[in-house]
Amino acid sequence: MARINITREHTLPLTILKDKINAMAAELNEQYQLQSEWEGNCLFFRRKGASGSIEVDQHQFELNLTLGTLFKVAKGDIEKKVIAIVDSQLQ
């Protein structure tokens, strides 16, 4: 298994941040067919061969993604794409 962990500081109100995370989730769903669901301030997502979460609070955004064997070889490309999506939405 391969893991991707991305942590970012932010200054956004949680409602706006959650809207941006929903936009990220929609983009990731389109690219990787990830299904997602909110539980409090944590968005859990999964698909066959990958699962993870995005947890937020007043100051921090943390994404954790676990890739199974199917995606392990593409970890570098997936990580670059996810970082680009995260960074574009958190600006």
Return Rg in Å: 12 Å
Biggest sheet details: 5 strands, antiparallel
What low-confidence regions span 5 or more consecutive residues with pLDDT below 50?
A: none
Mean of the pLDDT scores? 91
Sheet with the most strands: spatial strand order: 1-5-4-3-2
How would you describe the overall organization of this protein?
The protein is α+β, with helices and mostly antiparallel strands and 91 residues long. Helices cover 42% and strands 37% of the residues. It contains three helices and five strands. The protein has a five-stranded antiparallel β-sheet. Helix 1 packs antiparallel against helix 3. The longest helix has 19 residues, at 14-32. The chain is globular, with a radius of gyration of 12 Å. It starts with a strand and ends with a helix.
Keywords summarizing the entry:
five-stranded antiparallel beta sheet; alpha+beta; 91 residues; 42% helix
How would you sum up this structure in a few lines?
The protein has 91 residues and is an alpha+beta fold.
SSE order and pairing:
Layout: E1 2-9, H1 14-32, E2 35-39, E3 42-47, E4 50-56, E5 60-67, H2 69-72, H3 75-89
Antiparallel strand pairs: 1-5, 2-3, 3-4, 4-5
